[in-house]
Automatic annotation (TrEMBL):
InterPro entries in UniProt: DAP_DH_C, NAD(P)-bd_dom_sf
A Pfam family assignment: DAP_DH_C
Molecular function as annotated in GO: kinase activity
Domain of life: Bacteria
Domain 2,4-diaminopentanoate dehydrogenase C-terminal per the UniProt entry, residue ranges: 147-352
Protein name, per record: Diacylglycerol kinase
Keywords assigned: Kinase, Transferase
Transferase found in the keyword field: yes
Keyword Kinase included in the entry's annotation: yes
Length: 360
């Protein structure tokens, strides 16, 4: 019987606290350390921070060296990276150079950075991995499983593929992430506000990794550049969300696409439909059930549609989205530790399952 892999969880926020719980529940993993950016959390037990109602005997620390001194085989990195993507890349390279495998929820462009990041930056990741004998895998639910493994598996029953479209359709009103809601998506701001995410080319940096990875998995060469569309619509009334107040007339719903074209035809499309109240914009796509879903539509022969509806046992779909993000990383730890050094994408991994998690 192989010894359990030692795992440190990096951050204890919306994803990190679920990662702590996930590592604790996994029979092949042993939680050895927890890093936190919040001084008030330092010295507190990881079980308390994860809301487990019982101690785990592992105390959180703000000291990088102290956490690495626990000799983790892998780090499940769940720290916020949306506000510092390139600094976060340097953090991850540092872990690889120190000989620690990393599974991270961001920066999302590292899900499949080819064609997005400069080749020399990707080479630095691979070189650090080779020097430390460690691998890096960035994934989650979106970008991640809902729009890499799931659609690619579905294409295995296709005879002809005219288009692959992957969608997130969700009400973000209970999403607790003020920076993302206000600064990235611009909710609560004027419809014509200069929001970074809608600047030309930014969507292709973020969700372009989804389109490019699907193209690679299907052996397709895309036209350059990727094509982006954005539509913002106002609130018809004041809306209260968990992260930001939205006044009537300000941005309350957004629909965007990142399209990969082949000879001018959109063949691979990433689409997001994001509301801040369930009754907004009924003319846009809606979930078949619940307040949020991931949908895959493969147009061709045969026509295929798959709807992934999720909800938390003790929360809503935003809570379960964080759980799925954490668990995609936690459950992939053994496969990533066993992978060759350097950057590892979903195309490089074997089938990852919930092995060992069936209730007894």
């Amino acid at each position: 019987m192989k010894p359990a892999l030692r795992v440190a969880v990096w951050a204890t926020g919306t994803v990190g606290r679920h990662a702590v719980a996930g590592v604790d529940a996994h029979p092949d993993l042993d939680l050895c350390g927890v890093w936190t950016s919040t001084p008030a959390k330092a010295g507190r037990d990881a079980g308390e921070l994860a809301g487990l109602g019982r101690p785990l005997g592992v105390l959180a620390s703000t000291d990088r060296a102290e956490v690495l001194a626990t000799r983790p085989d892998a780090i499940v990195h769940a720290a916020m990276t949306d506000d510092r993507p390139f600094e976060a890349v340097e953090d991850l390279i540092g872990f690889l150079a120190d000989g620690v495998n990393v599974l991270s929820s961001g920066p999302v462009l590292l899900q499949y950075p080819h064609g997005i990041l400069p080749p020399e930056m990707i080479a630095r990741i691979d070189e650090a991995g080779a020097a430390g004998g460690a691998s890096l895998h960035v994934n989650g639910i979106d970008p991640g499983f809902a729009n890499d493994v799931l659609p690619l598996v579905l294409t295995s029953v296709s005879q002809r593929i005219d288009q692959v479209r992957v969608l997130e359709i969700a009400d973000y009103s209970t999403y607790v992430q003020p920076f993302v809601m206000s600064e990235l998506f611009g909710f609560g701001q004027a419809l014509d506000a200069e929001v970074p995410l809608w600047a030309p080319g930014v969507l292709s940096l973020a969700w372009g990794s989804v389109v490019r990875q699907l193209a690679a998995g299907l052996g397709v060469t895309l036209d350059e550049p990727l094509r982006e569309t954005v539509e913002r619509r106002p609130a018809r009334r004041d809306v209260a969300t968990a992260s930001v107040p939205i006044a009537a007339g300000t941005t309350a719903a957004v629909r965007f696409t990142v399209e990969g074209l082949v000879d001018g035809e959109p063949r691979i499309v990433l689409e997001h439909v994001t509301r801040t109240a369930p009754d907004q914009e009924p003319d846009w796509p809606v979930p078949a059930a619940g307040d949020g879903c991931y949908r895959v539509v493969i147009t061709g022969e045969p026509h295929l549609e798959c709807e992934l509806v999720h909800r938390g046992e003790h929360g809503d779909h935003n809570d379960s989205g964080m759980i799925m993000t954490a668990q995609r990383l936690v459950n992939a730890v053994p496969a990533v530790v066993a992978a060759p050094p350097g950057l590892v994408t979903a195309l490089d991994l074997p089938l990852v399952t919930g092995r060992g998690l069936v209730a007894s």
